[in-house]
Amino acid sequence: MDIHEYQAKEILAKFGVETPPGALAYSPEQAAYRARELGGELWVVKAQVHAGGRGKAGGVTLCRSDHEIQDACEGLFGKKLVTHQTGPAGKGIYRVYVEAAVPIAREIYLGLVLDRSSQRVMIVASSEGGMEIEDISAQRPDSIVRSIVEPAVGLQDFQAREIAFKLGLEPGLVQNMVRTLHGCYRAFTELDATMVEINPLVVTRDNRVLALDAKMTFDDNALFRHPQVAELRDKSQEDPRESRAADRGLSYVGLDGNIGCIVNGAGLAMATMDTIKLAGGEPANFLDIGGGATPERVAKAFRLVMSDDNVQAVLVNIFAGINRCDWVAEGVVQALREVQVEVPVVVRLAGTNVEAGQKILAKSGLPIIRAGTLMEAAERAVGAWSSDLNQNTRVRAV
Ligand code: ADP
Ligand code: MG
Description:
alpha+beta, D-amino Acid Aminotransferase, Chain A, domain 1, Dna Ligase, domain 1, Rossmann fold, 6-stranded antiparallel β-sheet, 4-stranded antiparallel β-sheet, disordered C terminus, binds adenosine-5'-diphosphate, binds magnesium ion
């Protein structure tokens, strides 16, 4: 789960990371009011969306007065911000953060990520902050400092100092940097984050080390033990298809293709998507309906897949181990009778009670296209979709 910049800053501040004074606003008037409360004479107004690259996309504005703040906000509230991280649809702006503008002397990149090969938390830092890390690693790979934390002992002072020295921080600032690194590491581990990123972490002209931006992502599977983090979820920033799925306990990721997939098991779902591609099609989603696929669950999955207007064919691929194909088939038939599915449906069943399952599909009288193997299923789905474009077979189940 992602959270907003202002929320990440609030969390990191509790762990000792210094941030400029700032305040949240839900309207232009409130933003101007909150700027007056903050005091000072220079502020930045920052669109709060779950994506980076806001600066370049017009989501961060330097303002010198009430009027400028209101103007900047008028251009943000209710609009969609499109950055290189949001995709072309952009993300809705419903909150802005007003922050004291600080005089920047240096911008540093700091990120904490899970490094899969070492199975450790890795600290990645660069003296070339402000840019995206992908650009830094392409253009100035030598500027990147990497350091792996041993979980048994946690981040060590010497290790944090070494990072500070490698970034070329002057001796008087090393201690600030060490405190920042410890704060980030503690926030990361204590709250089950999967990513903490501060870009830029700046050295100000009056020699402070401040986080000007902050991003945190959390492990969904650990949210149950951090209710204070879980409540920061902002559904307005999520793909509506994915939030609907999460609310129904289904694991769903929306994609750009047009073949809807209903599969049990994450591994099989991945393999199904690959096979669709191999057959020349594009999957519309990743969907794992999990074990114990009751008819109700299958129906929910169909509704979800069909709520995506791009879907032009559906491929159901079930490998029944603990599941039973006859139950799954009943679920498919029930779903097709209950859910309006106006596109070709291909079903491939394998495993426990497969014959009984096939019989149920055959007896249903529904024009379900059956397939024996995964490859065959993918080819039929792609074939059905392309022939559907030529106005051939269509399932009409009401
Ligand atoms: P994004 O990464 O989404 O573009 P940032 O929060 O990093 O958004 O802001 C973009 C740029 O705006 C920063 O690199 C920094 O130069 C500037 N900036 C952001 N916040 C402040 C601030 N409080 N004072 C001065 N400059 C800021
Ligand atoms: Mg940034």
